[in-house]
Write a structure and sequence with these properties.
Length: 336
């Protein structure tokens, strides 16, 4: 699949590692567990948005934008990485933070990603939850245009067909590593939110006939809605790439059993998963996305969903910065 016709900047340092998790594999006694380290993409403490931003910032520069505009939840990893990417290319930025999680600890509003947003330096505006955030983005875009700027609007999570190209690349990278390591991957599991990761990844797998099933674990939406949203973006990305035939809708599978009380609301499973991976493998997950997705993976292993001997790859999409916003949940016994 040829991606060279899309403008792109370089933000990822190199291919992210694909590692075996020997201790956790043994501890859980189920399938062989591997991890694809997209938490190590290299920009501003890493994460999945870096890959999307290579194409989004590339497109913004091609369109002579002067100002990047995006939105996300208060602890958005996407927002943090977008500000850093804009800085690297000398673009101004404005971000809208939605107060999507209610009743959170003070750390949620001042530590973790919010702290880094302040350090990277940007114009921050907040919005109450329940608004159409992409409409809010449009109206700020109008304001910037009236002030003589050329704004480039990036939707929440960087999830549009251009951003999703970043995950087409990730899928190609993983298939190349599997070939190199002679590893037959039976399934990839990852967190799915604004859909760009799963849509791009599945297009990268299906568009090259690589035959690796992918399971997205939802952090917000119910299964049917999330599958519909992922399929919609996957079809658009398939079309953007000009791949022959129709995108196979059946390739999109989502499990939404691990959302718990809602987006960003901690679950016991998440707390267990974060500690499990940290204590057996020395790897940090995050409380909002990968912690819940990994909790789902662990629970499915315990329920016998995977066969022993199968090779499962967890796609780690980053976000550990968010741990600092949830310290009252993750270490309640510590004296703060
Ligand atoms: C750490 C992390 N993992 C997973 C996701 C979900 O990816 P997507 O929004 O592309 O579905 C996000 C999105 O914000 C994220 O920050």
């Amino acid at each position: 699949m040829n991606l060279t016709r899309f403008p792109r900047v370089n933000l990822t340092l190199s291919a992210t590692p694909l590692e075996f998790l020997p201790n956790l594999t043994k501890h859980l006694g189920g399938p062989n567990l591997y991890i694809k380290r997209d938490d190590h993409t290299g920009l501003a403490l890493g994460g999945n948005k870096t890959r999307k931003l290579e194409f989004l910032i590339g497109d913004a520069l091609a369109k002579k934008a002067t100002h990047i505009l995006t939105q996300g939840a208060t602890q958005s990893n996407h927002v943090r990485q977008t500000i850093a990417a804009a800085n690297k290319f000398g673009l101004k930025s404005t971000v809208l933070l939605e107060e999507r999680v209610s009743g959170a600890h003070a750390d949620y509003y001042g530590n973790g990603n919010v702290l880094l947003d302040q350090i990277f330096g940007t114009s921050i505006e907040t919005r109450p939850s329940g608004l159409d955030m992409n409409k809010e983005l449009e109206s700020v875009g109008e304001r910037l245009r009236a002030a003589g700027e050329t704004p480039y609007l990036i939707p929440g999570g960087g999830s549009n067909p251009i951003g999703a190209l970043g995950y087409v690349v990730s899928a190609q990278e993983l298939v190349a590593q599997a070939n190199e390591q002679q590893l037959i991957i039976d399934r990839v599991v990852h967190a799915t939110g604004s859909t760009g990761t799963q849509a791009g990844f599945v297009v990268g797998i299906e568009g090259t006939n690589s035959r690796i099933p992918v399971l997205g674990i939802s952090v917000r939406m119910p299964k049917e809605k999330q599958e519909e949203n992922v399929r919609k973006l996957a079809r658009q990305t398939w079309e953007l790439l000009g791949i022959r035939g129709e995108f196979p809708d059946a390739a999109v599978e989502v499990n939404s059993d691990y959302v718990g009380g809602g987006y960003g609301v901690p679950t016991e499973g998440m707390v267990e998963a974060v500690k499990l991976l940290a204590r057996h493998e020395g790897i940090l997950l995050d409380p909002v996305y990968t912690g819940k997705a990994f909790a789902g993976l662990v629970d499915l292993i315990r329920k016998g969903y995977f066969r022993k001997g199968e090779n499962i790859v967890f796609l780690h999409t980053g976000g550990a910065v968010g741990l600092f916003a949830y310290r009252s949940i993750l270490a309640p016994q510590a004296a703060f």
